[in-house]
Amino acid sequence: MCVGGGGSCSSKMATSALNLKIVGKCSTSRARAADMTLPHSVVQTPIFMPVGTQGTLKGIIPEQLEALDCRIMLANTYHLGNRPGEQVLKAGGGLHKFMNWPRSLLTDSGGFQMVSLSKLTEITEEGVNFESPYDGSKCMLTPERSIEIQQAIGADIMMQLDDVVDSTCKDEDRFEEARHRTVRWLDRCIEAHTRPDKQNLFPIVQGGLDEGKRKDCADQLTKRNVPGFAIGGLSGGEDKSTFCRIVKVSAENLPDDKPRYVMGVGHQVDIIACVALGSDMFDCVFPTRTARFGSALVFEYPGELQLKKSKFKMDFRPIDENCDCSTCQNYTRAYLHTVVTKEPSACHLVSIHNVAHQLRLMKRARDAIIEDKFPQFVAKFMLDLYPDKKYPDWAQQAFQGVGISLEE
């Protein structure tokens, strides 16, 4: 990636390539269900989006993801900008064609790499100067350059380049600087965005763990004519109670008629809490990453099966008897116990199930919202995971904060 030029500020954007139709609302909490129409698919929310950083999910090919009825997945601007690079993506007809994925894509702007690759970055008002983890070369990612790469990728939803600070940082001045810079960088992204009728640009609410900063940042971002919003700068090590508090206040200060995306959330209790707090979209590498360690996700206690444990050696049941994914239809826990952490095929098989699990979780939540039975769904969901009713305090507080009792 090369240095991008500066751009003038603008708060104007043409008609968007996104339509959000609310199809259900919980009468108790802030949960809602919607149909989000994008250029490449209609996405039913709430939705979990699996992450294919380099244009591929580890262990799953696009045809298999489509067979699971996944409507949208993620890719990463920073990594794709380095490899294969903008020129290859353009020549290949964009990432959809390049990776043979006919449905929707969302691309992270590269902002998260300010934290994940912090030892290799230098942040200025111009942008972020990275030292490439591939060959050590220097590359400047500016708001304009981020949009340029994302337009070459052809993502249905592009994220603005934001100034991301680790949520556990103790420097309050750094959070203050970051939230204001995020707004300035949004204006530069809007100015650089030349395809608003084909690609959507989402800004990202920053402000650390301070409710006032979050409210102010959301207020500034909502003055811009954009089709949706993200809540960023979380899932970085802050305690769960604080995480939920910041998600709640951020979501409350975003418009009802536009999607809300909480970035980097993948554990099932965290997702359902965020749905209750009014959020629609979630992503994380967790389902495929934990699969590589032989961990299969389930709805009952303890929430994950560590398949490498000896107790599964003679267990000839599928991971989940109610799951219709190809892994559960064709393979037993005993077989998976034999191959997990030893054979590449095990990563593939468990990853398919884990992604299917997350998508089923979202469908169950959506159906409950549409039927206006979401509080009952939450109570059963939590009881299945915690049959002794020793619920995490943070989860109880989050649900109670929007009127949901786990004793339903």
Short description:
With 408 residues, this protein is of the alpha/beta class. It has helices at 62-67, 77-91, 95-99, 113-116, 143-153, 172-192, 211-221, 240-252, 268-276, 286-291, 326-330, 333-339, 344-370, 374-385, 393-400, and strands spanning 19-25, 32-38, 41-45, 47-50, 72-76, 104-108, 121-123, 128-131, 138-141, 157-159, 200-202, 204-205, 229-231, 260-262, 281-284, 295-297, 304-306. Helix 5 crosses helix 6 (172-192) and helix 8 runs parallel beside helix 15 (393-400).
Q: Which structural class should the secondary elements be placed in?
A: alpha/beta
Largest sheet: 5 strands, parallel
The strand count comes to 17
Global outline: globular
Distance between the termini: 54 Å
**Number of helical stretches of at least 4 residues:** 15
Average predicted local confidence, pLDDT: 92
Portion of residues in beta strands equals: 15-25%
User: From the structure provided, what is the oligomeric state, counting identical versus distinct chains?
Assistant: single chain
Largest beta sheet: strand ordering: 4-15-14-13-12
Low-confidence stretches: 1-11
Helix content: 25-40%
Radius of gyration: 21 Å
Key traits:
single chain; 408 residues; alpha/beta; 4-stranded parallel beta sheet; 15 helices; 17 strands; disordered N terminus
